[in-house]
Structures are given as structure tokens and as C-alpha cells.
Amino acid sequence: MNRESRQTMVLIGIALIVIAAVILVVSLRLPRVYEAPAQNAVTAEAAAVQAESEAAGQLTQAASAPEKTTAKQQKSSVRESAAQAETAYDYPINLNTATIEALMSIDGLGEVRAGAIIEYREHIGKYTSVEQIKDIKGIDDEIYSRVAGYLCV
Length: 153
Fold this sequence. Notes:
By secondary structure, the protein is mainly alpha-helical. The protein has helices at residues 3-29, 37-64, 71-86, 100-104, 111-124, 141-147; strands spanning 93-94, 151-152.
């Protein structure tokens, strides 16, 4: 092998190593935003069981101290616990069928942005891609990159 071809091979090898390093760094920096549906189902079931046990515990405490709580307070605390268990959502959430509460469950979408997403859906009729939420005032590329994995069409 002559000297020029050896130098070429060394440069190609170095370039391949650099490309591999860049791909590795980029892949490790990407956020993991999608949870498998089976995990969400288990999480929702666990939340429901926990809410039921908390409600039962609250009723037991109320029964042992009747002068502190009324029957109305007991019923409202049971309802609140059940409502908390029902707020576990399966991801990704469909933009065309989502409720404001489901959208608000996504980190980065508050009440105002979730309302704007629904309002825009009513304006356009139906989303055809998740990327359309970038047309909404207040949702920039940074927010879109945080929430896009939790949404689908």
C-alpha cells in the first residue's frame, strides 16, 4: 500500500469514528417521552386502588372521630379520591378527541394552552397532524418539542 492510500484510509476511519460519536451523543440527549400503554394501564389501576384505600382509610378515621367530620364531608372526600384516580390518562392523547383536562395532564400545557388547542380544533374542524399546534399563539418550538410525544392525531 502506498502512502497516499494509507492516509486516505486513516482519514476515512477517523471520519467514521467522529460520525459514530455524534450519533451517540445526539441519541443520548433525546428525551424519552412515550410510555407504553401497558405501563399506563397498570399506573391507572394502581392509582385507583390507592384512591380506594385512601377513601376507606378516611372513612375509618371519620368513624373513629364522628364529632370531627360530618357525613357530607366524608362523602365529598371519597368523591375527591375517586376523581383523582380517574385523572390518569393514556398517552398519546388524540388531539381530535382530547378534553381540556386530558391536555392539562401533559407537563407544559396549562389551562390556557389546552383551551387554545381545543379552540383551534373547533376553528379548523379537525387536526391532520400534531405539528399544527405550532400555529397556536403561545406554543413555540420548545413547547412543541416537550409535548409532541404525548400527542397524536
